[in-house]
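EI: anyone free to look at a 286-residue chain?
SC: sure, send it
EI:
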Amino acid sequence: MKSVKQSFKLITLSRPYSWIKNLFIFIPLFFAKDLFVDHKFIKVTLAFVVFCITASSVYIINDIFDKEQDQKHDLKKDRPLASGAVSTTTAILTFVGLLIIDIVIIYFFIPQIAWLVGLYFILNILYSGYLKHIPVLDLLMVSSFYFIRIMVGGIAADVLISHWLLICIIFISLFLIVGKRLAEFNRDEKRTVLLQYSRNFLNKTLIVLAFLVVIFYTLYSLFVLKSNFEIFSIFLVAMGIMRYLFLAFTTHRAEYPEKILITDKILFSIIFVWILVIYFIIYLHV
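SC: here you go
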């Protein structure tokens, strides 16, 4: 029973709920109309697994760095390391084990993404140790992680990625990150970098990014999708952005965007319908 509880704590330490962000890796494959090409789908799925393992190893390192700060946070104090449920030694051993699994999968199956995974890992370590304390740069760094995910998906699937799509991803990721910072800013206990921000700056930046997401997605739809039903996908994106803005301004839930995307029924429904519309546009040529 004790070993089961310990295993559960280690799984919690890996933050599996955050793996949803790695679904971005499938975006290039999906929009390239190659989702049902078996060998490409397998490669991208392996890249997804690699990124989930890499992300979990980074989260472990991040929790080790932030252990003392997390102990003072009203929510993060319950994390396995901060609460003392998992020792630092066990966390380090888990990190090493995940790293070995990652290296094996990359070496034997998808060596072409090795440099990007390595870059992602190094940037995350730099971010956790130093860069996350620098205002604005911390936002751009996290956004770059989404950009890397898209590049990994494209390279693993061996497909070209539209520049319009990349621009949309950059602004969407910044939008989610600023929403997260705004939710964190409203808490009594703030991370160091938030002390250098102001609520006014975050509010206005979030609105500007919301505008840019809708504008550039509209341009992408007009110049790339070119469908009779593109207006519906644009409308759904605008609805999703407005719903997220509402949650960011009226609740603390935007602090964990990877959770809010699947736990908020309205937002989840909008995203689900949007995926269906895009599927019909791209794969059925409507």
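EI: The two ends are 55 Å apart (CA to CA).
SC: 👍
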